[in-house]
Amino acid sequence: MSDTTIDTTALGEKIVAVIKTIYDPEIPVDIYELGLIYDVFVNEDYDVKILMTLTTPNCPVAETLPLEVEEKVKSIKDVNDAEVEITFDPPWSQELMSEEAKLELGML
Question: What is the reported pTM?
Fold first, then answer.
């Protein structure tokens, strides 16, 4: 076993870059800019856990969106495994959107 520490910052940036390729089907903004990703954890085994929410509990993509996030994050070379946990605490609100997302949607 090597003593190399993983560059979680660089891996985190890769994970965010991949997440930014995933869009909410009803809003032309990626799920990261929408504020749906609450947290990303990476452990020493390169296992990734993503805490995310949906715009509503009965979101039409509630079944498929978390799977898409898992699959795309697992496709990153340095990632061993990925798991998405859905939470509605705190519930999503428009305040969680980035300035870029608000601008894109004409809210600024």
Answer: 0.88
